[in-house]
Specification:
Layout: E1 5-16, E2 24-33, E3 43-47, E4 51-52, H1 56-61, E5 78-83, E6 93-95, E7 101-105, E8 115-120, E9 132-135, E10 148-153, E11 160-165, E12 171-176, E13 187-188, E14 197-204, E15 214-220, E16 227-231, E17 242-243, E18 259-260, E19 266-271, E20 278-283, E21 291-294, E22 312-315, E23 321-326, E24 332-337, E25 348-349, E26 358-366, E27 372-379, E28 385-392, E29 402-406, E30 433-436, E31 442-448, E32 453-461
Antiparallel strand pairs: 1-2, 3-4, 3-29, 5-32, 6-7, 7-8, 8-9, 10-11, 11-12, 12-13, 14-15, 15-16, 16-17, 18-19, 19-20, 20-21, 22-23, 23-24, 24-25, 26-27, 27-28, 28-29, 30-31, 31-32
């Protein structure tokens, strides 16, 4: 819902004043604003660089061309979160076309295995009592708990992939095609080459003889870059591990999430091959070979933190590529590519105009073309760490409007640990995850560390990332009562 309000707008009219210097006077005239009224204190409208979109003087000084129409129009946005009833660690998430949303939960499955938490009724709820969350991983022989749990939902087939990594014992892949009701027996996904860490798995719409999509996973192994493996039959069998970058690449093995697109490409981000800056790596053959595509980090620098390798990537419904990373100033930056990573837009700093001293754990997701959501945690002062989501609904426009919501209240921080966003931190672990449901609502997998509960952060109302921009149905506010 969008409503009008009255604000003071600066008109650049000049009136001579009496006196020696002939000073000019700016006249303030009331004019209708495009922005909603009664905006929550945890919602901000802004442009790149933290320019307050509701401050006409700041906008004018930044030489921003204002066009708040169409997909760039501001809509009332409110953020909140919803507990899953269990702890989580490095939460990865997925959403199926049946409107179920899933999150990994370390150690809470049968016999201490990784649980797969299924939340039903959350996406389209009318009352908080409409949603329930429970573990749906209950095979006769559960795979032993992974030190790095990971789940992923294929965006084209709804297959839920559970990926457990066991360091020296290789990796096991299981999948479900019935919303977690049953699980295919675990398959050893790789030979035992070395200690393996920081895995990621994803799929792209690259049809193969054995399955409609092609899958790939990458890990930090015994190479100077990630090692990757491919499945052309939906995860039943996997190729030997290959270099996840050009063979001479010295990027280091840590890699952010793999994301696949409708054009069959797979993408992932990490340090550039020269050990400097960030790059997005692309594969057009299911992960068998990869090419490097440097991001525009010359001006932003790169984060010097524990999870500094996390250059995240998303692919929208038309195959455009969107990237996010933390700069040397520990602030979040965004860039897009409309040519499969060959060229990139100038970087945009996406944090809102409020007191955030630094951010961490960047993650990004995309819906329709040019519509993205960016998630991160930020310090609002004295190590008060909050969850933030920045929405851009016209990324390809000249001056994209950004709408940022804080997902938790000012009196309800997610963590108060020193440097939480810059280090491995409680249930946040090394990384977070995001996805967009079929209605265009973004979902952000987090941990409420103070309560040790996994949470889904989202918009209770706001612009949609798919279909009509005003098409999101309002859902109830969650927060501490869901913990």
């Amino acid at each position: 819902m969008r409503t009008g309000a009255i604000v003071l707008t600066v008109l650049m009219l000049t009136v001579p004043l009496s006196g020696c210097f002939g000073n000019e006077e700016q006249i303030f005239v009331e004019q209708e604003s495009a922005f909603p009224d009664e905006i929550p204190s945890t919602t901000w409208y802004h442009y790149s660089g933290g320019v307050n979109a509701m401050d006409p003087i700041a906008v004018s000084n930044a030489n921003i061309t204002v066009n708040l129409t169409g997909d760039n129009a501001p809509y009332l946005a409110v953020g909140s979160y919803y507990g899953i009833g269990m702890s989580t660690f490095e939460p990865t998430i997925g959403i199926t076309s049946m409107d179920n949303i899933y999150m990994s939960s370390w150690g809470n499955g049968p016999s201490g295995s990784t649980a797969v938490i299924k939340c039903t009724g959350l996406i389209e709820m009318v009352s908080l009592t409409d949603y329930t969350c429970q573990n749906v991983y209950n095979p006769l022989l559960p795979v032993p708990n992974s030190n790095d749990p990971y789940i992923y939902v294929d965006k084209w087939t709804d297959r839920i992939m559970k990926f457990d990594m066991h360091a020296l014992l290789g990796m096991t892949v299981e999948f479900s095609d019935d919303e977690g009701g049953s699980w295919q027996n675990g398959q050893l996904a790789t030979s035992i080459y070395s200690v393996q860490d920081h895995q990621t798995i994803g799929s792209a719409l690259l049809p193969a003889p054995g399955y409609p999509t092609t899958w790939s996973f990458c890990v930090n192994g015994n190479a100077p870059h990630p090692l990757c493996s491919t499945s052309f039959d939906g995860g039943r069998t996997w190729t030997s591990e290959v270099s996840g970058a050009p063979i001479s690449c010295q990027s280091g093995g840590l890699t952010a999430h793999i994301e696949g697109g409708v054009n069959g490409n797979l993408y992932r981000g990490n340090i550039g091959c020269d050990g400097d800056g960030y790059s997005i790596y692309k594969s057009s053959n299911g992960g068998l070979t990869w090419t490097e595509h440097p991001l525009p980090t010359e001006e932003t620098g790169t984060a010097d933190t524990w999870n500094g390798e996390e250059a995240q990537v998303a692919v929208d419904d038309e195959g455009n590529v969107h990237a996010m990373w933390n700069g040397l100033d520990n602030m979040p930056y965004y860039s897009y590519s409309t040519d499969e990573g060959i060229t990139w837009s100038a970087p945009m700093m996406v944090a809102p105009p409020t007191n955030i001293s630094g951010t961490g754990f960047p993650v990004i997701t995309a819906g329709a073309a040019g519509k993205v959501a960016l998630g991160y945690v930020g310090d609002s002062g004295n190590d008060t760490w909050n969850g933030y989501m920045t929405i851009i609904t016209d990324a390809f426009g000249e001056s994209p409007l950004m709408t940022t919501v804080q997902l938790n209240g000012f009196d309800d921080p997610l963590d108060t640990e020193v440097g939480c966003g810059y280090n491995r931190c409680g249930g946040l672990g090394d990384f977070l995850d995001m996805s967009v449901d079929q209605y265009g609502r973004p979902w952000f997998g987090l941990s409420h560390n103070i309560n040790d509960i996994g949470i889904f952060g989202t918009l209770t109302q706001g612009p949609s990332l798919r279909g009509m921009i005003d098409g999101l149905k309002e859902i109830p506010i969650g927060g501490p009562q869901t913990l």
